[in-house]
Every structure is written in C-alpha cells, then in structure tokens.
Amino acid sequence: MKILKPYSERLRRLRRHMIKAGLSGLWVTRPENRRYLSGYTATDPQLNETSGSLFITRRSQYLLTDSRYDLQAAREAKAYTVVVYQDGLVNTLTRLARNHRISKLGFEGDHVTVTTYNEMLGSLKGIELLSATGLVESLRLIKDQPEIRKIVRALRITETALAETVNFMKPGLTEKEVAHYLEDRMVALGAEGAAFETIVASGSNAALPHAIPSNRRIKESETIIIDCGAKFQGYAADMTRTIFSGPPRRWMKEIYQLVRNAQLNALKNIKPGMTTVQADASARKIIEAGGYGPNFGHSLGHGVGLATHEAPSLSQIRPTELQEGMVVTIEPGIYIAGRGGVRLEEMVLLKKNGVRLLNQDRTFFDFSPV
Prior knowledge:
Elements: H1 7-21, E1 25-28, H2 31-38, E2 53-57, E3 61-65, H3 70-76, E4 81-84, H4 89-99, E5 104-107, H5 114-123, E6 128-131, H6 135-140, H7 145-168, H8 175-188, E7 193-194, E8 199-202, E9 223-228, E10 230-232, E11 235-236, E12 239-244, H9 250-269, H10 276-289, E13 301-303, E14 310-314, E15 327-330, E16 333-336, E17 340-343, E18 346-351, E19 354-357
Parallel strand pairs: 1-5, 3-4, 5-6
Antiparallel strand pairs: 1-2, 2-3, 7-10, 8-9, 9-12, 10-11, 13-14, 15-18, 16-17, 18-19
C-alpha cells in the first residue's frame, strides 16, 4: 500500500520512537493524534464513546471503528486498513494484537478510562501493556510547512472576525452576545468553527483568566478581555486582546502597559535552546518588577496545533528545551479581583535565532510615558 505524504513520514518517525521505547504495537485513541497520523477527521462524541482508534505495528496500520464511520474512515485514512468491529473495540484490538504477535502494546494512558483499561487487562493477558503517553505528542511538537499554513490561515480568520466584533461592540451588550457574534463571524469567514469556547470577560469578570461569557452587560470604561480562536482544517488559532469600553482609568493603563512590556520582552528574547522556564521568566520578571507578580498566576504560553493547548508549556515547572519549528503563544496577564484584568496574546513560530510573529493584527494601546 502506497502511503501518502505527510503520513508516510509521520509513521516512519513514529515507528522509530516505538522501537526506541521497545513497543511492538501502539494503540492511539486521542482524536488529535489519530488525525495527525491518519488524516481521519471524525471527532469523539464524548469521553466514553469513540469514533475510532488506530492500531499500529512496526509494519502495518489499522483504523478500528464501527459501522457509523466506516465510509468516512475508508475515504480519509487511505494509508490504513479499516476494521469495523462487531463485538467491541477491545475484542477487535485483542485479535489484531495476537495475530501480529504483539508482546508489548503501548497505549495513551492519559486518554483511556479505568473501565477500558481493566477490560484490556482481562482481554490482553500475556501482552504487556505500557503507557505511551506523550509519544505521538512528541512528534507533533515540530510543525511542518502545511501545518504552519493552516495555523496561519486560522489566525487570519480569527483576526478578521475579532476586528469586526470590536466594531460591533458597545456598552449594553452582554458578554454572551459578543461571543456568539464573534464565533458566527469566524464561521462566515471560512472556519470550521471556534477552536475553543470564546472568552469575553468584562469588568470584574476580566479578573478571571478563563471566565465563561455570561449575561453580564458591558458597562462604560471597563477592561474587556477577548480570547478567541478559529479552527481551519483541524488546526487552531489562539489570540487575546484587551480593549476598553470607554476612556480607561489610570490603573487600567498601568497594568495594560506592564503586560505589553512583558510580552514585548518575551518576543524579543525567546529563541530555540532556551528552556520553557526561561521563556516564562522573560515576561514574568517584568510584571514582578512592576509590583504585580502575584497577579500573574498562569504560564506565559503553550503550544498550538491540532489542539488549542498542547506541548510545550511555557511555565515555571517542567523545563523543556524550545526547538525551531514549534508554534507557541506568548500571553502574559495581570488580574485584579473585583476590578478587572488585562491579557495580551500573540502566536509565534520558533525560528533559528528567535521567533517569527504570526499575528498581523497590531491593535495595541501605548500608555508608556511620553
């Protein structure tokens, strides 16, 4: 069977990792990993209901699914033998594993329920089960050119939709109304949909980093955090802007400029070879020096690709070396309980000597002293 690019290269790299890990077989259940390795676009309805999984040996690859998805699987995952199971997923997996004489089977331990794992233990007796969490994700860390083009296209849609939404906004609208308008515009501009639930947080709600849009009406002279992203051909964008619903107060200007300075320092200094902890510190030290260190509680950023939040995490823990080809966000923030907050988020591609800014939108305020 001739395997189409880019899946031939991805499978080749995966098998090299499998050999290094001592695995003779791998069971892939996470939807993003499944799509990355096969091109199969179906999504899982819920945690305990799957649209399919991949079973990969050192020479063969199968897509296991049920009759609801057999035609789609055959059309999209052309490099795979599609197996429609009649007596349950684990029973089908067991037969294939024994037919291929699998001795050590890797599985995605962070994406398998305890119930399924116990069923596997009973059915796959004699086959060693090993958690392979992060194995496929390690391949997804570095984006190829087709992936980068899709991410950039998702970002362009996001930027246009956000600009239109800012023009639409006015005091009196609810956060929900603004969020729905923004998501509708993304779809109208060519997105599959929103990559995640849009955040529109006004006034005191802007002190909540992941606030859920509510029926709260936007008032005059408030900070409004809008965190949004479109999805295009499976790939996500993620950007945040903070705007004001009227003339900003002094404290708003102070924290906005501090966040922007922190972001600019990170954009200037982050480069391959630096650890994620060092990257986080490049922005955090600016906010700490300004006296708001305790008000910046989350990490500086994260990877973006088929998932909105994926490795690496630009945080103060678990240092990971940044590499050329990674796509990450730079999103410092300051949040003041009961008053509001500011977050600014850009997307960048790690290049040889620094970063390439992927955003074109330059809608920022400058409150620095004249």
